[in-house]
Write a structure and sequence with these properties.
alpha+beta, 13-stranded mixed sheet, 18 strands, 3-stranded mixed sheet, Jelly Rolls, 7 helices, 343 residues, Phage tail protein beta-alpha-beta fold
Length: 343
């Protein structure tokens, strides 16, 4: 393991507390081997366990403090009552009632803390999110508690509440993911929450979701889904082979028939193109692999290609394959990668 890679550095990366150089260092380390990724996941789980323990310890301390205070209060009043009785003070029942009330207040305080602790614990674990995050150029398969499968593309994340998932099938995602949603006998819905309140409502189906910057793309492979777009006041039902594109910056919503395989071919370790522009491919390269590639001649960005490019291997191999597909040459200048015409 790189001597500069520490658990603290990796955890800072997942909490977005690293600078650009540290991000590159951690991402290179994560990509260098599956063992490194598994180690990072263990560190994340250990951190979550420590957070849980601190939370529980805080509650136990609070309970203990109240019990001690209550016990001291009761002991104090018990002593006062004995002194008064031994002094032959007139027993009218006033002191008994007063002590009983104070005893009741102390007991009530203890009960309130216990109930409050139970309520906090229930809410804490019920609302605690399980999050899976991928780095650039990495894909990750996630099996949800209901046996639904999610395949995350590079630079993406998926969150869900595992403790209540079978009752409330909801996930929150960023980046890109392919879903294979299990259809349950009770027809319970499956909700995918995107940015700005957009929600994909599912019963049982397969679809690809891309949520990058201001652009959301939902492509349906099979089944039936409904897309809720609050800001546009629209509910769109989708059929297989349809794509809905939501541009939050432009405030536009577009639905069209597409070759859905072009949008989810990445789950099979390849990019499949059919008249696809270089501009779109380079954008995808930047989003999923963190690699920026430029052109000297902007007209090249509108050039199209059809075919398949494998995704296995280093990112540089992928860039070489893209250049070859477009019959272009790679040139490096001042640390940047450019594509240009072959001479």
């Amino acid at each position: 393991m790189n001597k500069d890679i520490s658990p603290e550095l990796v955890l800072n990366y997942f909490h977005d507390k690293c600078n650009a150089a540290e991000k590159r260092e951690v991402e290179n380390w994560l990509r260098s081997g599956e063992d490194n990724y598994q180690m990072a996941m263990r560190w994340l789980k250990e951190e979550e366990s420590e957070d849980d323990e601190k939370f529980l310890a805080g509650l136990l301390v609070a309970e203990d403090d109240v019990f001690k205070s209550t016990e001291e209060l009761l002991s104090k009043h018990k002593g006062e009552n004995s002194h008064r009785l031994n002094s032959n003070v007139k027993k009218t029942g006033f002191y008994d009632v007063k002590i009983s009330r104070k005893y009741g207040y102390g007991l009530a305080a203890s009960v309130v803390v216990i109930l409050l602790s139970a309520w906090l614990l229930n809410g804490y674990f019920k609302n605690k999110l399980t999050t899976v995050k991928t780095v650039f150029a990495q894909t990750q398969k996630v099996v949800l508690p209901d046996s639904s499968i999610v395949i995350l593309n590079g630079n993406s994340s998926l969150s869900y509440r595992s403790s209540v998932f079978e009752k409330e099938r909801q996930v929150w995602m960023e980046g890109e993911a392919f879903f294979e949603v299990s259809h349950l006998s009770d027809d319970s819905k499956f909700l995918v929450h995107l940015s700005e309140g957009k929600t994909v409502e599912v019963l049982g189906t397969e679809f690809d979701v891309s949520e990058r910057k201001n652009l959301s793309k939902i492509v349906l492979k099979s089944g039936k889904i409904r897309l809720d777009i609050p800001q546009e006041h629209e509910n769109i039902e989708m059929a297989p082979g349809e794509m809905v594109e939501v541009d939050s910056f432009k405030g536009s919503v577009k639905k069209e028939l597409v070759n859905s395989e072009l949008y989810y071919s990445w789950i099979h370790g390849k990019w499949k193109f059919d008249g696809t522009r270089l501009r779109e491919i380079l954008n995808k390269l930047s989003e999923t692999h963190g690699k920026s590639v430029y052109v000297y001649d902007s007209s090249l960005l509108n050039r199209t290609v059809s075919g398949t490019v494998p995704l296995h291997g280093e990112s540089q191999i992928l860039i070489n394959n893209i250049a070859n597909a477009f019959d272009l040459k790679i040139e490096e200048q001042k640390g940047k990668i450019y594509l240009k015409e072959r001479k």
